[in-house]
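Most newcomers find our protein records easier to grasp once they have seen one. The structure tokens are whole numbers drawn from a learned vocabulary of backbone shapes. The record below serves as our worked example for the rest of this section.
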Amino acid sequence: MATDLALLGAVRTGHAVWRWYGWASPTVSFGRHERVTGRYTPASLEAAGLAAVRRPTGGRALLHAREITYSVTLPWPADRPWRPAYDAINRLLTDTLRDAGIPVERAPAGPAVRPDGPVCFDRPAEGELILDGRKLVGSAVWRQGDAYLQHGSILLADDQHRLVDAAVIPLPPAPAAATLTDAIPHRSPLEHLTALEQSLASRLATAGATCGAFTPDAPLRQAVEEARRGQRDPGWIWRH
């Protein structure tokens, strides 16, 4: 996520970057404005075997474990509403998943989802992706000047109940979420990722986009290191 934040500051180059990535260990990410004081503590997460970060984007607590994280950074004028960018990315993600054999749908409009818990996957927000009525992809966004960041989690397996177990106060049980493994059990995690990469590349090529591998230059690598130091600061992680 430090790389996402660094890329957000670098989109003045005019390039959009789509990333797929995973996590070295189970980690809960708190939304940028989410209040977690009194719900979790560093000790309660450590006892549950979870690390913690705070996302540069909004939303609610999400466990990154057996899942695929995606992120998109792109130029987006500050005077334009954010919703068209969100809808366009989710349409592309919907098509990518369908091409990979996952028959997702976009969640209809409903009551606004408050940023203060209990957990991200308890119900979908408008436009998020669902499978058989259950949330499969959780997404969050952030604007910074003329730049836009959207990222989210595509579950391979449903580990979100561990967030409930790690809380220091009673939380309602996490409802079952949809997973890629439920949809296509015979695919390995690597095969799921490969299918998504191939589907996305095909969709972008069909749309006339010129795609290529992204190689960070020295200034971007320095920005990533600076962002990483900030993301690891307990004052940032536990600020609410």
Remarks:
- Residues 2-237 form a domain with the BirA Bifunctional Protein; domain 2 fold (CATH 3.30.930.10).
- Strands lie at 17-21, 27-30, 51-54, 62-64, 67-75, 105-106, 129-131, 134-144, 147-155.
- DSSP finds eight helices and nine strands in the chain.
